[in-house]
Amino acid sequence: MRLVSALVISILLVGLVVAVAVASPFMSSYIGTSQDQAGSTGDGGGPSAGGGSGAGDANDGADGGESGASVIVEDVWESTHISFGYEEPTYLVIQTEEEWLMLWGRASGFDITPPFVDFRTHTVLAAILGTKPTTGYAIRIDAIAPDENAVYEVNVRVVSPGANCLTGQSLTYPVHMVMIQKSDGPFQFVINPVVVGCG
Fold first, then answer.
1. Which range of residues forms the domain containing residue 109?
2. How many structural domains does the chain have?
3. Is the pTM value of this prediction over 0.85?
């Protein structure tokens, strides 16, 4: 009886191992496809620039240069609590590590290493809203696409709180930085203001 039970258990274990071995390639393929799709939407890879599927997609997306075809971007940095020393809205194209370190040298209230960017393969675009009197303000680079003249239009959404919005009474410094595959442009920032209605 014990021998029969042991044989049955052994057969079940072998069947389980075979099933996992057969299913594993399909599971890996599905996970890889999901990551690729997430990268291709321009969701970005978090605050630091680097490898991963998002970077590969950015390289593929920027090569085409077709009119109206969006360039895939990756988030590099986004915050509201660090001042970069600009009082008014400022839009920057950063092509070198020296320029990058110069920008971060202006930052106040920041005590960690700036996000890494390989400027041999990438260009950084920064949208800095300047100093705002309250919370409720935001700035974001939504899309980048070349027009019919091969000028890269950088669409920037600038959000302001409406008159009826409750906001925190503290200074904020909205900023959004993204990177794309290395490009000399030219770039044109297109500002899209949005006022949030609150009741």
1. 53-196
2. 1
3. no
